[in-house]
Amino acid sequence: MFHKLTNLSFTTEIVNNCPLHLSLCSNKNYIFQELKKFNLMNTNKRNRVYIATSLDGYIADKNGGIEWLENVPNPENDDMGYEAFMTETDAIIMGRNTFETVCSFDIPWPYKIPVFVLSNTLNSIPNPYQEHVQLLRGKVKEALKQLHGKGINSLYIDGGKLIQSFLKEDLIDELIITTIPILLGEGIPLFSNLDKPLQFECLSSKKFTNSLSQNHYIRLR
Q: Which of 12, 95, 145, 202 has its CA 20 to 30 A from that of 20?
């Protein structure tokens, strides 16, 4: 909405709901950027991606491995915005492959919020995870309808194939992509073919550990 504004004649609704400091600022571009952030923070239904890729756009190597994600030292254990992202998230939707990958890690269950596995091939959730995970079936729009009906609106979409399915339906609102400075040459890509171009805008760019770049994109609708 706000990217289409071309002057400072904001509607009464926008002015009344935006942070007070904006009304004191004469920088039009700054106001637009801040209003976008404010609008995103107050949007109930949104589907977001938080993920890392190689320089050439892969999320796993040709064998499905992700060990290369640990190649960059992180001595201060910077979470790169992950905890802040999760505090704004109601639940996670992941695909079967991602779920099985998480289950293969030799660690306690890592998520504190509800997790839903969207799969039409998985028969049931294994016993050790039934306390934390629920199984969803159907297409992505059907899954969203089920979750929205339960008041679960701000969703973290995880897993390459699932992200691609959401993008094909134009159902991704935000992409937060951290780029690892490595070229894999081949592997599992984050993106695939689309029926039409989807335009995003870069809301912010950050640098971590002097090696990683993280870009936050929002879908322009």
A: 202
Q: Is the pLDDT of residue 15 over 70?
A: no
In sequence order, the 6+-apart residues with CB closer than 8 A to the CB of 16 are none
Amino acid at 69: L
Identify which of 189, 188, 177 has the alpha carbon closest to the alpha carbon of residue 218: 177
Q: Is the pTM of this model over 0.85?
A: no
Pairing of strands 188-189, 133-136: unpaired
Residue-wise pLDDT for 23-75, tens only, equals 444 554 555 555 455 454 445 799 999 999 999 999 999 999 999 998 888 88
What is the Cα 212 distance to its own chain's centre? Answer: 17
Alpha carbons 155 and 142: distance in angstroms, whole number: 14
- Residue given tokens 């770049």 in the structure block: 213
Write out the E strands in the chain. 46-54, 58-60, 91-95, 115-118, 133-136, 154-158, 174-180, 188-189, 200-208, 212-219
